[in-house]
C-alpha cells in the first residue's frame, strides 16, 4: 500500500510546494515563516515514512532522493516565476522531517513485526 501512496503523496507535495503563492489561499493554506517550516517537516516526515515502509531495503536511496527533492523544491521556489522564496532552512526542515519519518517507520515496523 505504501508503494502506491508514496508517489501520490510526492505529487501532492510537489504541487503544493511549487504552486505560485497567489494560489495557496484557494487550497486553504498560506505561507508564514513558522507554518512553512512545519509544513515542510510534516510533508517530508510522511514521505520518508511511506518510502521506508514501501521500500525497506532502500533507505539510503530514499534519503538521497528526498534530500535532492527538497533542495530542488527550494531552487524552484527561488525562481521568480512562482513568486515564492528560496529558504535554506526549509531544506533543513525537510531533512528533520525525514529523520522523524524514518524513526516513525522504524517504530511501526518493529511494532508490527513484534520486535522489541
Protein architecture, described:
By secondary structure, the chain is mostly helical. The chain has one domain (2-113). The protein is built from 4 helices and no strands. The radius of gyration is 15 Å and the shape is elongated.
Q: Which terms summarize this structure?
A:
116 residues, mainly alpha, 72% helix, 0% strand, elongated
Helices and strands in order:
Blueprint: H1 2-18, H2 33-54, H3 59-77, H4 88-113
Summary of the model, kept short:
The chain is an all-alpha fold and 116 residues long.
Q: What's the β-strand tally?
A: 0
Share of residues in helices: over 70%
- H/I helix tally: 4
Q: Which stretches of 5+ consecutive residues score pLDDT under 50?
A: none
- Return the average pLDDT rounded to an integer: 85
> What is the total number of structural domains?
1
Percent in strands: under 5%
Q: Major beta sheet, specifics?
A: none
Distance between the termini: 24 Å
Order of helices and strands: HHHH
Work out the radius of gyration. 15 Å
Secondary-structure class: mainly alpha
What is the overall silhouette?
elongated
Amino acid at each position: 500500500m505504501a508503494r502506491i501512496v508514496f508517489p501520490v503523496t510526492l505529487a501532492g507535495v510537489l504541487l503544493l510546494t511549487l504552486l505560485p503563492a497567489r494560489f495557496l489561499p484557494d487550497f486553504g493554506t498560506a505561507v508564514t515563516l513558522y507554518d512553512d517550516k512545519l509544513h515542510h517537516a510534516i510533508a517530508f516526515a510522511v514521505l520518508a515514512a511511506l518510502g521506508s515502509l514501501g521500500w525497506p531495503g532502500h533507505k539510503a536511496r530514499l534519503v538521497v532522493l528526498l534530500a535532492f527533492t527538497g533542495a530542488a523544491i527550494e531552487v524552484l521556489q527561488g525562481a521568480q516565476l512562482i513568486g515564492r522564496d528560496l529558504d535554506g532552512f526549509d531544506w533543513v526542515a525537510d531533512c528533520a522531517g525525514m529523520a522523524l519519518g524514518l524513526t516513525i517507520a522504524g517504530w511501526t515496523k518493529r511494532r508490527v513485526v513484534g520486535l522489541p
